[in-house]
Every structure is written in C-alpha cells, then in structure tokens.
Write a structure and sequence with these properties.
5-stranded mixed β-sheet
Length: 517
Amino acid sequence: TDRTDTPTAATAPAALPEAGASETRPSETRLPERRPGTARARDATLLDRTVTRLGRAWREATGTARLRLAGHLRPDLPDDDLERLRRQIDDCLAGRGGEVAARLRAAELGRAYLTLSATGRERFFRLLAAEYGPAPGALEEAVAAWQAAADELERHRSERRMRQALSSPRIVLLRQFNILDQGVKFLVDMRADLLALRDSLPEADAAVFQPVDDDIREILVGWFDVGFLDLTRITWQAPAALLEKLIAYEAVHRIESWDDLKSRLDSDRRCYAFFHPRMPDEPLIFVEIALVDGIAGDVQELLEREAPPLDPREADTAIFYSISNCQKGLRGVSFGNFLIKRVVEELRRDLPNLKTFSTLSPIPDFRRWLDRELAEKGDELLLETERRALAPFASGQVETAPAAVLAGLLQRPDWPEDGAAREVLEPVLMRLCAGYLLAARRGRRAADRVGHFHLSNGARIERLNWLGDRSAKGLREAAGLMVNYRYKLDEIDENHEAYRTDGTVAALGSVRRLARS
C-alpha cells in the first residue's frame, strides 16, 4: 500500500465496522466514541465484549442440555450456590456420558463462571485451590512404590503413578475447556481474572491462589508453544475489527486516530503479529516496524504522519519501535523473542537491502530507579562538576542540596523547553542512565524490564538517545530518554549465552564510556 487515502464513507459511522465489513476506513482525526448502553457496556473493555460473546455462544450450546444447575447462580456465589457449583465441577470430573456430554458440561460450567461477580470469581478460585489439588497421600504412596520397585517395569509403573499423583483434578477440569470452540480464549481470560485478583491482594493472601495459577499457566504454556503459532503481517486491508484491536492493545505509543493507525501500516512501515489457530481473531503479541535510513533516535519524528514515505527498497534499517503483548492471561508465557527472530527472517527475505535491525525502545523503569537512588544516596550519586552545574537552579534563599535540585527540575513538566535546564540535565541524565542500563540489577537480570527482554534475546545496547521521547509518558518514565538495542545477527547467540550465563550486558564502547564519564 502507499499513502494515498482509501475511499472514505460520506459520513463517519457511530461505531467501528464489524469484522468482514467494507475495506473502507473513516478518515476522521479522532476515533469514534462508543455508543451509550448499560453500565457494564459503558465500562466494558475489549476483553469484556469477548467474554459476553462467549456467554451467548455457550448459552446456545447448552440450551438443549439437561442441566444440573437449575436457574442461575447468584453473582456473589453464596454458600448454597457454591455447593451447587461444587457438584457441577464433580460432574465434569466424573467424565460420564462421552464427548458430547463432556462438552456440554464444560460449556455449562463456563457459562456459570461468566455470570459471577468479582466476589463470586474469587470464591470460585478459592474452591479450586482448596479442594481440587493433588490427592493427599497419593504422592507419598507412589514414591514408596518406586523405592520398593523390584525391576525396571515396576519402576516405570511407579513413575507413572507419581506423575498422576502430581496432576491435580483441577488440571483435568481446566483442560476440558479446550474442547469448546472458544474455550482456549476463555481459559486465557480466566487467568487474566486470577492475575488481577492476585495483584490486588497482599502477597501473603495472594499466595493461596498460586497453585491454581501454576496449573493454568502450565496448560497455557503447552497450548501456546511457539510451534503452534502463526506469524501474520497486518496491513491496512485487514478486517476493521482486527485493526480496532491493534488500537486497543497498543501499549507503548498510543494510537491517536485512524489516520495515525493508517500511517503505521503504510508502505515504509510493517506490523507483524502472532496468532493461535484456536484464537484466529485475537493477536497474542504484535510488533511495529519503521523502515528508515540509519538508526533512528527520536520516536516523535518516527511517528510523524506528515513525513514523506521512504521506498522500502531504499531503506537500510528496520527499527522495531513498539512491541505489545495483547493477552493479560498469557503473562509469563514467553514468545516475544521468537517473534523478533521470525520477523527479522521475513524482512531479510522480502527486503534484502536491510542491513541493520535495531529497536527504538523506552526505558520504563529509569525514573523510578533514579528517584529511589536520589532519595537514598543524595549528592553521592552526582559528580562534583554536576553538583556545581545544578547549584544555580536552587530556588529561594535556603541552600538546597544538588540532588534535591535535580529531583525538582525533573518534576517540572516544561523543563525540556528550558534551554538552560536541558544543557545542565543532559550530561547528568545520560551518564546515570547509561550506568543504570549497564549495571542496575534485579537479581541476576537487568533491572529494566525492556532491557532484560532484548538482552536475553541477544541484542546489544547500541546508543542512548537524549529526549528521544518528549511525550508526557516518556518524560514521566525515563526523563525523555530512549535506547537503541541492536540485533547484530552474527553476535546474537554469543550475547544471549553471555547474558543468560553470567549477566554480561553487551554494549557498544560509546555507551560504556558514557557511563564512566
């Protein structure tokens, strides 16, 4: 495609078109607002709408079945309803009646879950945690049988008993959702509910749900093995419903309008996503790429919609500027590293002129680290020359510590527009940020989560960019700094092994000199 506008409707629709509708896109500068509706509809997220569709589909699937749950469960799942739900779970685990009956029971249980409030879902998860774990004593008996085994055949049988003893009944229950048309998506969303519940509780209280989370995650890791995933390039001709999801799921640089989205899918841009065959309409993770000359260091320039397009055949660099995970329920199920490697392969095949593959990445944890370091170490964090340079910015007659002056300057939203402030802050922040990226740790891994992702994939730190992101978010999270991680193809394996083995961070010499300056 090129930057020539597609035909537009005469009147902008009140809502986004449904999947499979006309390829025409509205050209207005802002996204259409949602129509008013019920309180749930007004507050609904994309996930809520998916769950609602699941509920309708499963009500149809179970409409002709003889159901054990007469009527509806009350949303908060009081004790008598909890007992009815327990009997339904036991029916699912009993496995009577063959595949059709199993499908109907699983659909019925899923429908029951969808009717529950947050309180009801918490009670549901507590039930799974307390009553549907591994059978007490079964593992000890299996271990004793293994120790008493007289030959290899008996040892093999006892090992199988141990595996069965470690497999909890709730795993058997949760796997039944795989037989439903939307069951994989349902289980992903169920884990998203569980993670939200755990994140809202103190650590000691959240630990109760850890076994349930471990079981669901184990299932999803198997279901979402990278070998099962499809890599798809998303273009402006994709169904409107899918394009809407890109807007909703973009987590790094917000998509402001349809025009903005169209620009990100233009001829000198690429967008690739992983899909699962059982969730064909739901991207799992996607990456946005700009095809440019040389390594880019300013994301505002990169996203400028009015910039003239570059012929992709003339570009020598692919800049990965946004990677967004789409499914909260797949947290901890990693396939982002495979996405980058697969996309590099696709780009090299389609555009052999590309020689450099680099990111333009945010540094989302830098300001949080810097604020903590300033509070704990104060002026010790600064060089003597930096303290003297900051002194004139102290306000009032009372002497202010240079570290406090630095913290105060960064709280000013307009400091990037103040030439004197920029001149003083640039060497201080560039030095501290380079040191942070190279040396700050959370255990053995890099403290910055984006840095950890790219370093563990074999990238190296190529360049630190002053005021590479002047958005409010960029200033709040990283004082406007951005970093390029370069994927140098002949170094990826070596860098990966060094980082995974002993935490060695691969970086260009200029970045190391900056940290020592």
